Amino acid sequence: MREGVLWTNLSLRELSRRLMTMGTPASRRTIRRLLRKLKVGRRTARKKKTMGHHPDRNEQFENISRLRQEYETSGDPVISIDTKKKELLGNFHRDGQTYTQQTVETFDHDFPSASQGKLIPHGILDMANNHASIHLNTSHDTGEFCCDSIALWWEEHGRSAYPSAKQLLILCDGGGSNSATQYLFKEDLQRLATRLGIELRVAHYPPYCSKHNPIEHRVFPHITRACQGVIFHTLEIARQFIERAKTETGLRVTVRVLEKVYAIGRKCVEGFKAGMKIVFDDHLPKWNYRALPQVT
């Protein structure tokens, strides 16, 4: 092969024809044998190269590791949160196979106008108890939805699992509904801290590092596997199959529906930045801060 050429998508038949035009005839069988000898095979590209490397990346990973150790040692809860891929509700194709007597026919196009709504699954992983809470909504992925999801987890599982907890560590990505740069999320977080009566500490993963967020590899792949080939005709079907996700190491998944309609385009209330009870860390404050409950 030419120097610098790493791959080709030509078939064995096409390779045989090209060699023929170059004056070196070879059958497909011969080409297959030579390719094996050269250890050339059909492979799928891997997502391995990062799109960016923030200079504070390693420092933040070390900081997150330290915080996790500190909270776990003291018996305080540590949760990992994220929003899974959004899905259209309706007769739309989804990857995977199921046992059927005949082929299931779905729409040939994924037009939102033909759907019954959009499924937004927000996930929370309780790191110590290996328990995932998935909260489904059909309006918009907002910071308010994220905070309501955390509140529901606390009311149903967190408070009983950590009765003496006074603080909660939240690990999350740096973008999306829980963006590290959005004061609107901090306002919702401040309101949540007051609502729950505990200190909320947030640690964001650096840019391009979402795959390191624990919920990404400890929960979401198992939900995808449990729902392979399943057509999400309704919200209830999605709920039933997502809740079936489990692992041999003891992962449990609980699914609830949040029916509230979350508005987009909200702005921070006037004066929030001046009077907020958000305390930024001295070390990497853009990714690490605490929301303190306000006394009313």
The topology string of helices and strands comes to: HHHEEEEHEHEHHHEHEE
Question: Which term fits the overall shape?
Answer: globular
- SS-based structural class? alpha/beta
List how many beta strands DSSP finds.
Answer: 9
Give the low-pLDDT segments.
none
Give the C-alpha Rg. 25 Å
The helix content, as a percent range, equals 25-40%
Share of β-strand residues: 15-25%
Major sheet description: 9 strands, mixed
For this entry, what is the oligomeric state of its chains?
single chain
Distance between the termini: 74 Å
Mean pLDDT: 93
Supply the number of helical segments.
9
Task: Briefly characterize the structure.
This protein is an alpha/beta fold. The protein has 9 helices and 9 strands.
Structure description:
The chain is of the alpha/beta class and 296 residues long. It is 32% helix and 17% strand. It has helices at residues 12-21, 28-37, 57-74, 143-161, 183-196, 214-218, 220-226, 235-242, 272-275; strands at residues 78-83, 87-88, 118-126, 131-137, 167-172, 199-204, 252-257, 278-280, 288-291. Strand 3 and strand 4 (131-137) form a beta hairpin. Helix 1 crosses helix 2 (28-37). The longest helix has 19 residues, at 143-161. The radius of gyration is 25 Å and the shape is globular.
